[in-house]
Design brief:
Layout (H helix, E strand, L loop, with lengths): L8 H17 L23 H6 L11 E6 L16 H4 L6 E6 L8 H17 L8
Parallel strand pairs: 1-2
């Protein structure tokens, strides 16, 4: 899948040049294959180095966030549930201002209940925002 995501042709040419230069500098490392820039598909794996490092970073306590999680496993305890792709335990984030679990598959953002929840969150945010200062 990751190979389906491509970069602009000019950038690919530059990366090819860099890859050839790296092979020239370190010929013993050729078994690694050509240089490939990581992309969002790589970040889907819990074995991805970026995901492993960033998952240990603390969340800034000043950042308010909400969770909307799909559950496509009716009759299963919430802790063991899943949206069909992501298990609840991976989707659940401690410290969320709110969490709504709705009957939905992975594309929960398309569910009308999720859309209503986003509207609720945005309206709540507007009510909490300071009034704009009058313009001169």
């Amino acid at each position: 899948m990751a190979n389906l995501i491509t970069l602009p042709v000019t950038m690919l040419g530059q990366l090819s040049d860099i890859s050839r230069e790296l092979i020239r500098i370190a010929p013993g490392k050729q078994e690694l294959g050509p240089l490939r820039i990581p992309n969002s598909i790589d970040n889907l794996s819990d074995r991805d180095p970026f995901v492993r490092l960033s998952s240990r970073l603390p969340m800034n306590p000043r950042v308010r966030f909400h969770s909307i999680i799909g559950n496509d496993t009716p009759g299963v305890a919430l802790a063991l549930s899943s949206d069909g792709i992501v298990p609840y335990e991976s989707a659940h984030l401690e410290g969320a201002a709110s969490e709504l679990v709705i009957p939905s598959q992975h594309s929960v953002q398309e569910n009308p209940l999720a859309i209503l929840e986003i509207r609720r969150i945005l309206k709540e945010q507007l009510r909490a925002a300071p009034a704009p200062s009058p313009s001169r």
